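Before surveying the methods themselves, let us examine one representative protein, written as a sequence plus integers encoding its fold.
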Amino acid sequence: MRVPGDWTVRQVAIAAVLLVLFVAVAAVVPVLIQPSDDAGTKAALPSPTPTATVSVSISPSPVASPVLSPTPSLTPSPKKTVSSFLVRPAVQPRPVTNPPNATYKEFPSECAPVRTTQKPPVAGLAPAGTGYDVFGSTGTTPAPPGRTPSGSTSCLNPGDRSTYWVPQLTQGGKAITPESFQMLYKAAVDDYTSVQPFPAGLRILTGGKGAVPSAAAESSVSWSCTGYDSPQLPSPGTCHDGDRLIGKIASPGCWDGRRLDAAGHRSHLTWPAAGACPASYPVAIPTMLVRVVYPIDVSRAVRVSGLAGDQYGFGAITGWQPKVLKALVKDCINAGEHCGDSGLPD
């Protein structure tokens, strides 16, 4: 600011104060006179019309309690198993007819010994530790149920791969080697046309310690030599010099048609009654009439290993080739004929 030269100090101070006041007022006045946004807005908006207040009461929706699913058990359910000894579908019996009388209705099989053992193919014929003579299949392990053994056989008919065994006979503590082991497969029922082949793998025990007494013919052992025939072994001196001791026993001829084996190896088979199979064992199968020939010293006592003489029996696991057995049953048993070793009617 340019000051006139004739101003006093007092005048200069007053002028400075006035100048400061002027600047301050100039800065404040525009702010004071600026319109308020709120006031303008309020002036521009019409006054609201009063309305009735509606009170709405909202009740909370009931919350459903959660349904808890049962915790699954960690223990696995047992699996259903099907026995390999069950035949499915079950074999059905043939219709029973009234065929003409026939004398024989049978075919043979003869086998040489293949080994001796104290472990039979199927236990239950005699106590543990009993010695056995084994015939037929040369295999030492039975084929799976329902299958024919694939190995060789000691039987004259190569189609017979069955396994057969009998308790050993002894004299003076030494085992007697059988001279021959022969079987006649035959009808045990009156209607021989109703007999049908059994499947491979059928387990059979007859006689022995677990045998159930039966009135059926040949269901228990018979011992014979010249002039002697009894369930009991002959006493020393009973048989004649040069005689052979012959044991004969047969297997049941009626099957339930469902099981190749059962607990105890017997309850799936039974004997005919009044010439026919009972309703619970309706399937007629060939019965096996076993004939075992022993060379003996007639002056010495004979013993059965592990058993009394009248408890002698045999075991079998059938193993015929199906086509061979089917033809023999049809051409020999069902036809009422006796067939020789060749399988042809005599």
